[in-house]
Amino acid sequence: MLIILLTSVFTVGTVASSPSTQVCAPTIIDKTLVPLKNFDANITIVDVTDLYSWDVVLSFNPAVLEATAVSMPDPNFLGLNTTWAIGIVQPVIDNFMGTVKVGDTFYPPPPPPEGVSGNGTLAIITFEVKAENAISPLALEHTALEKIVNGTNVPIPHETINGLFDNRMTLLPPVALFYVEPLVTYVSEKITFNASESYDPDGDIVRYRWDFGDGTVVNLTDPVATHVYNSTGTYTVGLNVTDNNDLTDTATYTVVVGKQNSTITISASPTTIKVGENTTISGSITPTRQGVTVTIRYRKTGGEWSTLTTVTTDTSGQYSYVWTPETAGAYEVKASWNGDENTLPDESDPQTIVAQEAPSPTPPPGPGIPPNIIAVAVVAIAIVAAGIAVYFLKTRKANASRTQPRILCSRFFLSSEGNKTCEGPAENEKSLNVM
Ligand SMILES: [Ca+2]
Prior knowledge:
By secondary structure, this protein is mostly beta strands.
């Protein structure tokens, strides 16, 4: 009975996520395998259970290799003394396309026996070398394994591992290349290291080893890595790539990690108060910084800034201060901090606080002035006024007497009564009158 299994076992819904069964083609690296020399490539199977039937298609480069024969191993495959239908499944060699198709099954049809288990060789393909300093894939284009369950053919999940023929005199190492994004980097920022431009001129890169220079080393099969630095500094990043011949190459790049930005906020509550009342000024620093000093400055709008106070942030990076303006006016307050070894400083935008005049206090009722005190005061004022008036009148009279015109006589006559009268014209009368 001929059983041709053309359906990939990987499409079966019950395939385990990681089957242990493997079908492997060989990797043959031998620079002595020059043209016209022959070698055998064994297709092997690993960790199979109850294998009843199989077939594979191996592809190669017909410019490098020519398949000349296909043989089966000992009929007592895996030590099970049973009969395989050798010859029923005839190998098919296509040296134009570069394929070998081979398969086998038990004969006569089981059960019993139900199959063979373990590791072994499925087929031996003999090649003749046609080219020097060359490589050729030995790739498993198709593989199918089956077992019998309750009289029905059931696929056996498995994976395939391709091989390679390589008779080059010199194997070429890979070339490590990578770039960093972004170019300007900061603490706590995710940085991408991309090595996808690395290549191997005669093979494949199978491993990317990154040393980020801060003690972090990772091995990846993917060419792209990311990393975050927690401290400022200059770091030498090393990339080591390994190819399928275990040859390596290294590239380095210096990353300068600067301080990260920070943000400090400020707000006030309430923002309008009366002189003598309190307002609470508060804010926070991002990223959170505990126990750092925040300086709060203030000014009357348009004036010079002065330090109002300094406060310390709490575990949440927050600060607060209760302020009582002493005079009315429109104020601006702002907060700043000086940063730290990994963080840049920052200053907030101003926050306006209006302090209004406090209402005028109502004067307490006074004791009053007793009427007798008022009377005394009136009398005293009257006396002072009278005194001033008398003084003024006297002064004026004296002045008037000094301005009275004096008459000077040239002769006097004394009467019998003893009165003295003036005879003769007065002298200087005119001038005296104008005095
Ligand atoms: Ca290589």
